[in-house]
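User: Here's a structure from my thesis project, written as structure tokens. My advisor, Dr. K., wants to see whether a designed sequence matches the one we expressed. Can you design one independently, without my sequence as a hint?
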């Protein structure tokens, strides 16, 4: 058989044409990217509106993935590559587990499925119902959010419950903002490109103003609930707002280095918000010194949300 890594093109859900790393085998082209520096391969599948994973490879006859039913796969594949690049280029991390594991994504999961998630082994994206969500891989911040769950699971492994769970959620939102910014699309919102396609300008969450989408931004308003694993998607507003203050103070790059070091070197599965403050302070001290403005920015940011 004749086989080779190839470079193709594709059209994402926003209509833009992107370059895709593909693979050709016996005249068929696959969303199968072998171009990454280590052996981590990016593989993208479709569940064809079913729920068995990973489903079938997304293929094309001429290496130009431009049909409308390929757009969600083009986005998932391309944005996974951008997120891989961020972690490798900025932090030297080889795939989500720093061990070159393949990045597997499945699109067209379920029927009108209004969600996206990391299932412990791969990323999974629904098509949305067209009203609450459009296909959920259509936003780089969502893909980076899901992939960061995998990074968290293979490092701090923050339990998905109560404060450690809200921290887990916040880490995914923090690196979602940073990865988007690294790719020239900076905003404090999450999911703006795929949430309520009929209502421009809104989003799922705002790190600048968590209250905009019913999240607290201060410990005084911590939401005690048994729903959503103890409100992990609600209480993430508090560490999210702390990040907003810190990044506004010292910039996204330094903040990203401090957060990455805290996530991979100091946080553990039961870490709560107070532990996060200490881990971030220790990371800032390691990187910039105890009397640095970076250290002070972390202290100020957490004090502003009522922690420390
Ligand atoms: C990433 C983001 C695009 C996605 C958005 C999302 C989707 N949902 C469910 C959902 C579904 C319908 C509505 C509605 O208003 O009709 C609102 C929310 N809740 N959050 C999300 O936040 N998914 C969770 C999935 C968690 C699954 C449990 N491990 C996550 O990755 O944290
Ligand atoms: Zn999440």
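Assistant: Designed independently from the structure alone:
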């Amino acid at each position: 058989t004749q086989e080779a890594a190839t470079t193709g093109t594709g059209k994402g859900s926003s209509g833009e044409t992107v370059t895709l790393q593909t693979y050709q085998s016996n005249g068929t082209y696959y969303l199968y990217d072998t171009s990454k520096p280590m052996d981590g391969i990016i593989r993208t599948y479709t569940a064809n509106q079913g729920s068995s994973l990973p489903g079938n490879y997304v293929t094309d006859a001429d290496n130009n993935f431009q049909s409308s039913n390929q757009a969600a796969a083009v986005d998932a594949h391309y944005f996974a590559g951008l997120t891989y690049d961020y972690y490798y280029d900025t932090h030297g991390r080889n795939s989500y587990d720093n061990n070159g594991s393949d990045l597997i994504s499945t699109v067209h999961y379920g029927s009108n499925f209004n969600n996206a998630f990391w299932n412990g082994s791969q990323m999974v994206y629904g098509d949305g119902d067209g009203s609450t969500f459009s296909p959920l891989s259509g936003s780089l911040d969502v893909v980076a959010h899901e992939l960061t769950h995998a990074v968290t699971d293979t490092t701090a492994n923050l339990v998905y419950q109560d404060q450690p769970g809200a921290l887990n959620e916040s880490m995914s939102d923090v690196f979602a903002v940073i990865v988007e910014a690294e790719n020239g699309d900076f905003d404090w919102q999450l999911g703006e490109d795929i949430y309520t396609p009929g209502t421009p300008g809104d989003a799922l969450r705002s790190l600048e103003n968590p209250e905009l989408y019913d999240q607290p931004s201060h410990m005084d308003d911590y939401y005690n609930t048994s729903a959503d694993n103890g409100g992990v998607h609600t209480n993430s507003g508090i560490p999210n707002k702390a990040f907003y203050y810190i990044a506004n103070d010292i910039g996204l790059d330094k903040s990203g280095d401090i957060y990455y070091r805290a996530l991979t070197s100091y946080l553990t599965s039961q870490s709560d918000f107070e532990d996060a403050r200490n881990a971030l302070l220790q990371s800032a001290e390691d990187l910039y010194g105890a009397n640095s403005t970076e250290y002070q920015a972390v202290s100020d940011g957490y004090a502003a949300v009522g922690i420390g």
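When you compare it with your expressed construct, this may help: The mean pLDDT is 97.
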